[in-house]
Write the structure tokens for this entry.
Amino acid sequence: MDETEQWRNMASAPRDGSRILVTVRSSEQGPAEVDMAYWSRADQFGEEGWRASDSSPGRI
């Protein structure tokens, strides 16, 4: 990654299914962390939105 690039708001992230790095704020569930996510269109398992790259919608 180019050193001149900075973290940006997710609102400006591409919504084409490409993966992006996201920061997750700390909460009572755990410390802050960095994760990978992607934009997913609506399907039989739910509405469109950001999903963790390791999620498996529809699986139990």
In short: The beta strands are 20-24, 33-40, 49-52. Residues 10-52 form one domain. The chain has one domain: 10-52. The first strand starts at residue 20 and ends at 24.
